[in-house]
Amino acid sequence: MRKIFAVLLLLIIFSCEKKQDKNPAVSTDNLKRSNERTDTKQDALSKEVALKKTNDEVLQALKVGYYDIFANYIHPQKGVRFSMYAFVNKNEDKQFSKADFEKYLPSKTVFTWGSRDGSGEVYKATLNKYLHDWVFKKDFTKSEYSFNTFQAGGNSLNNLKEIYPNSNFTENYISGSEKSGGMDWNALRFVFEEFDGKYYIIAVINDEWTI
């Protein structure tokens, strides 16, 4: 009788384990819409590794248009500034708090973002369109990555280190084509600052060859 009871007990335990295997825990590394952001503790990984991970997550969010995920990386106190080119203009570049970013994201409000290099044409667009057409104008998930290093530069003055002297930045660089003599390169930079043990974006800077 004891043998039969032991066999039945083992069968029950085995059956429970199989059921649990069919429902594995969902990985938090997968990009998905959520009110949370995936964070890497600074004490667990080096700053460079942590920011590379954050950089890649933000690029994926921008690529698929999950701007609500991007919003979770905006600095809680300083917000985020968008610069059309390498030169950061503190007086004219658009800056949003997280609350304002989320407010204007679905709206049809048109902002003036700056002037196009060469033509001088004033560039106007909604926040959503600016993110889609200007910030992520190329597929930067396929770019060359660097940390606190510039991989290329045009004629536009690059004052990132002067405006954000105590910050870290990542650069995502796409080289130019042979047909255009390499002059159609593009770069997307994120400037980070730490707040309460987490890294947040305070600036999004596009760069390209300028006349």
List the helices and strands and how they pair.
Elements: H1 2-21, H2 47-64, H3 67-71, E1 80-83, E2 94-96, H4 98-104, E3 110-115, E4 122-126, H5 127-135, E5 144-147, H6 160-163, E6 168-174, E7 186-195, E8 198-208
Parallel strand pairs: 1-8
Antiparallel strand pairs: 1-2, 3-4, 5-6, 6-7, 7-8
Protein name: Lipoprotein
How does this structure look, described?
With 211 residues, the protein is of the alpha+beta class. The protein has one domain: Nuclear Transport Factor 2, Chain: A (Roll), CATH 3.10.450. Helices cover 30% and strands 24% of the residues. The strands form two sheets. A six-stranded mixed beta sheet has the order 2-1-8-7-6-5. The chain has a two-stranded antiparallel sheet with strand order 3-4. Strand 7 and strand 8 (198-208) form a beta hairpin. The protein is globular. This is Lipoprotein.
